[in-house]
Amino acid sequence: MKKTVLFFVLLLLVALAYLRIAIYPQLDLISGFSAKSVASGHFLDNRSLETIQNGDNDIPKVDWATNEIDETHQFVTSNVYGFKERKAIFREGLGATLINDDFDVTKPYEVPKRTKISSNLPFPYGNLEQKDTVFANIDYEKLQNAVANAFDKKGEKNKRTRSVLVVYKDKIIAEKYAAGFNKNSRILGWSMTKSITGTYFGILQHQGKMDIMKPAPIAVWQNDERKKITINDLLHMNSGLEWEEDYGKISDVTKMLFISEDMTKSQIEKPLVGKPNQTWNYSSGTTNLLSGILRQQFKTHQEYLDFWYSSLLDKIGMNSAIIETDMAGNFVGSSYGWATTRDWAKFGLLYLHKGNWNGEQIFDESWAKYVATPTNTSNGIYGAQFWLNAGGNFPDLPKDMYRCSGFQGQMVAVFPSQDLVIVRMGLTEDPEFDFNGFLREVVSSFTTKSAK
């Protein structure tokens, strides 16, 4: 009997030690993720707490958190069994921001000046509904089946698709939403935001204000080998800098997103572990560093805020789009872009048309080729803040297809050879959701084949 009691005591001590060493340090991240997710989903897209907890936050460990919404003051507090309470505040124009105890919520702040261009044109150049267009080369029954198969059947929770939109020759030929979502629902793109952030460098280059082949303007790098890193290297995730992109534990990326005050500095502090332009390593810290470099291009913070909307998002009618900021007021260009499914499609169409938006050239035609050209040592899977199919990762799809891609399976896929953009938003990735199969079935509904 004594041996049995001793065994269970030892087992309890081991369990407590494990919780203290392995789990307790993660509670900051868990409650931080939960607070930020609830604040964004509720205040940006009017989702209920129950919907967010049963949808966005039903992730292992994140579902441990208890959340409370303060409607009056527009903030959310979250904790894990009473420990490690975190707070996220919502500010109109800036979205939700996860804050620490030192953040002064009474301090005045600047917001982007938005311009909604009035247009009597249908989508994509306006927001009026399109007239029905029937293309002779599309098997519509096959197309609708492919789209329907991307969604869970009643009672299932496997594919977890929230929306699908298929645009061919600027015409919406298929559109479907899961229960609780519609064409006006803002959905988080996660790392699809990286593609937006990278685009601003193309815009500045088109305006003659940026040379991406020059060394990155980071003062603390000028005394060591990091001074050789160019903006081009950063855009290609090929700087050679150390970075750990692991969302399942305490890592560089989780510390940045859920603890850092200024997310543009996280990558700056890292040493070289490879050679610039020879060591590809996917890094959200790199994209937020790029956001910081963009900040340096403007005399005032207000100009920086306005530029993200006036030069791109509002210019192409992505009026639903919001890029959220960190505590220091910088856009979190790696991860926190929200928009409706139709507005995400507009971004894809801008690239399909090589930067031309209804007659206006937003960036040079060559920029679309630039982002879709494989990065050295990426084995054909990555370009400049875009993912590629040049390496044949999707074996049944054209190799010229490239895409914005985000956590949990957000995707804007651009098919230049087929004049096609496909958007899928959801909560699952491969293998739960078969992207190759889904995209193959949509593309195969076109009877006129394009060369791979």
Topology (SSEs and partners):
Layout: H1 2-23, H2 27-45, H3 49-54, E1 65-70, E2 75-80, E3 83-91, E4 95-99, H4 140-148, E5 161-168, E6 171-177, E7 187-188, H5 192-206, H6 231-235, H7 252-258, H8 284-296, H9 301-313, E8 322-323, E9 337-339, H10 341-352, E10 356-357, E11 360-361, H11 365-371, E12 387-388, E13 402-406, E14 410-415, E15 420-426, H12 435-443
Instruction: Report the sheet-strand fraction.
Output: 15-25%
Mean pLDDT: 93
Q: How many beta-strand segments?
A: 15
Number of helices: 12
How would the global form be characterised? globular
Distance between the termini: 72 Å
Q: Radius of gyration in whole Å, from Cα?
A: 23 Å
Residue share in helix: 25-40%
The side-by-side strand order for the widest beta sheet comes to: 6-5-15-14-13-12
Order of helices and strands: HHHEEEEHEEEHHHHHEEHEEHEEEEH
Poorly predicted runs: 13-21
SS class: alpha+beta
Sheet with the most strands, sense and barrel status: 6 strands, antiparallel
Brief description of this entry?
The protein has helices spanning 2-23, 27-45, 49-54, 140-148, 192-206, 231-235, 252-258, 284-296, 301-313, 341-352, 365-371, 435-443, and strands spanning 65-70, 75-80, 83-91, 95-99, 161-168, 171-177, 187-188, 322-323, 337-339, 356-357, 360-361, 387-388, 402-406, 410-415, 420-426. The protein is α+β, with helices and mostly antiparallel strands and 452 residues long. The strands form 4 sheets. A 6-stranded antiparallel β-sheet has the order 6-5-15-14-13-12, with helices on both faces. Strands 1-2-3-4 form a 4-stranded antiparallel β-sheet, covered by helices on one side. It has a 3-stranded antiparallel β-sheet with strand order 7-9-8.
